[in-house]
């Protein structure tokens, strides 16, 4: 090796040591001005306002303290939403049906279709603002890709959005039968499941939905209903008393079925983590396409599911591709009381199509922990509350297996970590001599344990502790002989990371979260054991496909289009961190905690996709969805850029990095 190569290698090692990802010299940018540098690290200093100025949507950024400046009050947002609804066309009139609620005055939407179409001509919606009259890059009016996704799915039924559809000018289906969106989702041609029925919502809101297994368990252990109000508690108690005799025989026949749950194999399966905001069905479909074997819904609050909240029930909707002979789908819930969790899991088993239920015991969000759920449960091992929740959930399920997701501990001190104790209890057989002891095992109640290698106090700061995960994996292997697998979670970004963790033999597989958001083709890299250099044109095709999935999931009307745009921008708040393999220095591999040096892409589009500016994300969304409405606003919910929190050296200024080179 020549002296020049040695110096170059030392330079690269020095950059990595300082927390930077080495970029090839021909793609590096020069030192920027202090203002631009501050923008790159902390985001825009001031919120961008004036949504109607220049025909652009409002962009609202969080400041350094996490406060959203320039946002509207809840009252203003409700008022604008109400006015927008009044101008929107009734769902029944849009498909050519008569609105049965118009005569009673309970439907406040517009009912004049001709007036609606006339007002829409010059608006953003169908008014010629789409790029080249297309919805997707590379598309053309004669191509199949620009047709209505609902007409392509069901050719014998009209689009459920009718004239409100984004593709209404291209509708070709002249079928006589027309259905509303809810009717369409219930039909055989729909590929999405778990939509909440009206009768179910009514029963849940009125507290008349019967949950006999959880009721029987709670009575047996003497647990009171704490998750409902006193009035609802009296109502539920009366209903259960009236139906107790009728269901007695049925409950007796269920005793044998309770002990035999469906088996689920996690060994070396590629698992997509439950992801708040980004982990919706369209994104999960993208991950399944790239090779994910197991997908999990966004975390749903157990109390909201039991209350019949449609927004919460929307989180558990799944696509047909997520549950098959090779793919499994799980629903993750969060609750802090045995009665709440037991009632919720029974409801899910009865009404939701899923392969397993996961209880989140590691969520670090303050609002969740304040309710006694999430990471707070990690502090309840010695009090017995954690065991009661697991026992209540497992006893209320007949066929669906139960899994849990935890963190290393609540506090940051290693002496206070207790994940190893929880893993040990999950893998230990119950002892007849210590049934009421705090050391009794839970074997047979939990099918698998996922361990995130951080504490609640850490949030996402610092790297995941895989040494501790391996220690817990050894406990699971030794105590349960592999019956209860341990799934590791944290900072898996390359196939080398996956191999290093799984090949140790201590963990069954890895659960992949942020790595999959930044580059969903990570699953393909793991299966093919190679780094994939994804070009800018390929990434645009993925965005176009995501938009197509978004229309199918959220709808192809104005509301669905703007939801698709919002979640596309949320996704791009992570994807901009991806650095193509061809830009990296020789033998360099991108890691989650390494901040890239300032760089240009191999073309203008690649440079645009690497931007961390919200305005650029909106610009990319316009390539697929046209200009946003003037009243549309976007605020990124998560600060994905956590390099500085992971590595204290990564706050070095760009000028100092360039000087090192």
Helices and strands in order:
Layout lengths: L2 H15 L2 E2 L12 H9 L15 E2 L14 H14 L3 H4 L18 H8 L28 H5 L27 H6 L5 E2 L4 H9 L5 H10 L8 H14 L4 H11 L12 E2 L8 H10 L3 E3 L3 E2 H5 L3 H4 L4 E2 L8 E7 L3 H14 L4 E6 L4 H5 L14 H12 L5 E6 L11 H9 L20 E5 L13 H15 L5 E4 L5 H8 L6 E4 L1 H5 L3 H7 L7 H19 L3 H18 L19 E2 L7 H6 L4 H12 L7 E2 L8 H4 L7 H7 L1
Parallel strand pairs: 1-14, 2-15, 4-13, 5-8, 6-8, 8-9, 9-10, 10-11, 11-12, 12-13
Antiparallel strand pairs: 3-7
Helix pairs in contact: 9-15, 9-17, 12-23, 15-17, 18-19, 20-22, 23-24, 24-26
What does this structure look like?
This protein has 661 residues and is of the alpha/beta class. The strands form four sheets. Strands 4, 5, 6, 8, 9, 10, 11, 12 and 13 form a nine-stranded parallel beta sheet that branches. Strands 1-14 form a two-stranded parallel ribbon. It has a two-stranded parallel ribbon with strand order 2-15. 40% of the residues lie in helices and 8% in strands. Helix 23 (536-554) runs antiparallel to helix 24 (558-575).
């Amino acid at each position: 090796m020549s002296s020049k190569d040695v110096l170059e290698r030392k330079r690269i090692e020095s950059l990595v040591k300082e927390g930077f990802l080495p970029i090839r010299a021909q793609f590096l940018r020069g030192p920027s001005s202090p203002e631009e540098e501050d923008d790159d690290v902390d985001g825009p200093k001031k919120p961008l306002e004036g949504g109607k100025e220049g025909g652009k949507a409002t962009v609202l950024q969080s400041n350094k303290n996490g406060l959203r400046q320039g946002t509207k009050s809840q009252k203003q947002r409700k008022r604008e939403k109400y006015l927008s609804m009044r101008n929107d066309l009734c769902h029944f009139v849009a498909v050519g049906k008569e609105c049965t609620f118009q005569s009673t005055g309970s439907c406040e939407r517009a009912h004049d279709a001709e007036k609606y179409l006339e007002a829409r001509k010059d608006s953003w919606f169908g008014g010629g603002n789409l790029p080249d009259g297309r919805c997707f890059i590379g598309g053309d009016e004669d191509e199949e890709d620009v047709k209505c996704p609902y007409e392509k799915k069901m050719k014998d039924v009209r689009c459920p959005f009718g004239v409100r559809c984004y593709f209404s000018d291209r509708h070709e289906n002249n079928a006589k039968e027309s259905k509303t969106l809810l009717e369409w989702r219930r039909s055989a041609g729909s590929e999405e499941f778990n939509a909440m029925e009206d009768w179910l919502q009514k029963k849940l809101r009125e507290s008349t939905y019967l949950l006999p297994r959880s009721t029987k368990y709670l009575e047996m252990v003497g647990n009171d209903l704490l998750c409902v109000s006193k009035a609802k508690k009296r109502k539920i108690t009366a209903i259960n008393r009236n139906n107790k005799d009728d269901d007695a025989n049925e409950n007796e026949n269920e005793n044998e079925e309770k002990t035999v749950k469906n088996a689920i194999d996690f060994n070396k399966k590629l698992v997509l983590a439950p992801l708040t905001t980004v982990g919706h069905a369209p994104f999960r479909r993208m991950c399944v396409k790239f090779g994910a074997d197991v997908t999990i819904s966004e975390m749903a609050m157990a109390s909201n599911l039991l209350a019949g909240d449609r927004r919460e029930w929307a989180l558990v909707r799944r696509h047909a591709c997520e549950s098959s002979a090779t793919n499994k789908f799980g629903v993750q819930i969060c609750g802090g009381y045995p009665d709440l969790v037991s009632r919720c899991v029974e409801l899910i088993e009865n009404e939701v199509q899923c392969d397993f239920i996961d209880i989140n015991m590691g969520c670090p969000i303050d609002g969740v922990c304040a309710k006694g759920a999430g990471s707070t449960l990690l502090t309840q091992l010695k009090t017995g509350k954690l065991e009661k929740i697991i026992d209540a959930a497992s006893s209320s399920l007949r066929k669906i297996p139960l899994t849990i997701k935890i963190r290393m501990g609540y506090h940051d001190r290693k002496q206070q970590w207790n994940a190893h104790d929880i893993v040990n209890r999950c893998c230990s057989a119950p002892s007849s001599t210590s049934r009421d002891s705090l050391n009794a095992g839970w074997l047979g109640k939990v099918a698998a344990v996922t361990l995130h290698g951080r504490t609640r106090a850490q949030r996402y700061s610092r790297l995941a502790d895989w040494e501790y995960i391996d220690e817990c994996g050894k406990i699971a292997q030794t105590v349960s002989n592999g019956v209860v697998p341990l799934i590791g979670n944290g900072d898996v970004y390359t196939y080398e990371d996956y191999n290093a963790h799984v090949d140790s033999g201590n963990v069954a597989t890895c659960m992949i979260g942020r790595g999959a958001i930044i580059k969903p083709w990570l699953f393909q890299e793991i299966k093919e054991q190679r780094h994939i250099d994804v070009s800018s044109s390929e990434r645009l095709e993925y965005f176009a496909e995501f938009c197509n999935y978004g229309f199918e999931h959220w709808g192809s009307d104005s509301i669905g289009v703007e939801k698709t745009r919002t979640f596309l921008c949320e996704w791009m708040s992570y994807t901009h961190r991806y650095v193509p393999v061809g830009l990296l220095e020789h033998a360099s591999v991108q890691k989650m905690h390494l901040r890239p040096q300032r760089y240009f892409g191999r073309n203008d589009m690649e440079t645009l996709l690497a931007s961390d500016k919200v305005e650029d994300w909106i610009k990319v969304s316009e390539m697929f969805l046209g200009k946003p409405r003037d009243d549309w606003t976007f605020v990124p919910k998560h600060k994905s850029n956590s390099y500085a929190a992971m590595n204290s050296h990564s706050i070095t200024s760009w000028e100092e990095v360039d000087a090192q080179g």
